[in-house]
Structure prediction request, 126 residues.
Amino acid sequence: QVQLVESGGGLVQPGGSLKLSCAASGFTFSSYCMGWFRQAPGKEREGVATIYTGSGSRFYADSVKGRFTISQPNGDNTLYLQMNSLKPVDTAMYYCAAALRNTGYCPLSPYVYNDWGQGTQVTVSS
Prediction:
């Protein structure tokens, strides 16, 4: 069975940085899309960044381009999200997710993903 466990969230001031981690087990990263998604209270869950681990192709929401970086180092069964220049609108519960996919494109739609972590809270506030 697939297991995803997020960590690294916390409280940070606007303009600050956080690095989220998602420890994955039960599958091979090279066979999957992996992604970070977030959900604020009262809002729909939205895709932040995804990566196709077979090729390293990355996809980002427009709202985070240039600020966030998704990565999965070779041989590391951990997915990362480096978040820089954080804004209050980035405040949300952040979830790691995975989906078996072989097209090389990893959608930002959360409906594509089957396996989810429990989430880690990110709060950006002064």
User: Anything to note?
Assistant: The mean pLDDT is 93. The longest strand covers residues 92-100. Residues 72 and 79 are 5 Å apart (CA to CA).
